[in-house]
Write the structure tokens for this entry.
Amino acid sequence: MIYHARHYATGTPLAVAVEAGRLASVTESDRNPREWIAPAFFDPQINGCLGISFNSPDLTPDNVRAVADVCRAHGIGAFCPTLVTNSFDALHHGFATLARALDADADLARRLPCFHLDGPYLSGDDGPRGAHPKEHARDPDWDEFRRWQDAAGGRIRMVTVAPERAGALAFIEHLTAAGVVVAIGHTAATGAQIRDAVRAGAKTSTHLGNGCHALLPRHDNYLWEQLACDDLWASLITDGHHLPPALVKSFVRVKGLARTLITCDASSLAGLPPGKYRAWGTDLEVLDSGKVVVSGTPFLAGSGHFTDLCVANAIRMAGITLGEAVDLASAQPRRLLGLPVTKLEPGAPADLMLFDWEEGGELKVREVM
Ligand SMILES: [Zn+2]
């Protein structure tokens, strides 16, 4: 199979030959294709979609496959299924079900290579905890985590923690020693607590600028501390609802392209029409704008959109190129998690997507290989 499309970063027309799931050759095309070709997205944070939540006590392997297929249609070739704050049993069920689905399906296992645990060792304060249930926010417990990691078959590769929780520093050290990427998020930490967390091994901020108080002291706050820390990467939700354009641009400029990644943080309501829904014990609402909120509050509950829309937004908001934005949503998360980065060169796995895009417009995925 030969695909004629423009290289996502250089614009060069390419003829890409794919054989047995790998790139057999990549040469210049003599045609003038309008489509683009790029590595498929890798999203570090997908909670579910179309009413299916990875956090549901009723989650089945078929549900997992259904979410992966919807994500693929949006260019997301692989992602971290993400579980959030919940009881021990609920999280154990979620990780065990994910592991069972992947053990039975090698293709699905390739598309969901590792898991993200966003909780439950987070701030219980309104604002920082976002839509996470207050009653389940708690202090880190290494033994509890180990039991989830066993249920997950060792696949939990990323954990988001609030460093101000009792025992958090030792927990971060344990995770780091075990090869798990520690993210700071849903936190009300002081500057000193954030710096201590980074010294203990924390590598990134989860959805920086969200899971925050609505009002903060203007100078001395955890956002500036995380921005100023050169050892911390940051994931940003650029769905157009979570962060205003000026903030996205400023965050990207401060962190630089080498320490930024894009996530859609798709909630279980992503892709559903406007209306009221109930998920993980909370009343949620999809507004006409596509924004997903905890009913009757301004608090966002994950995103209603997928990575393709977030990448097109990031180009406009941060003033970056198509190539740069795609890298923030494919190569960058892979680098952070220590996964192989997909390259457009012979021998590489055909983990690619074809899409339409015009300057200033949307990104429409046509095909994911
Ligand atoms: Zn979160």
Q: What stands out?
A: Residues 80 and 115 are 5 Å apart (CA to CA).
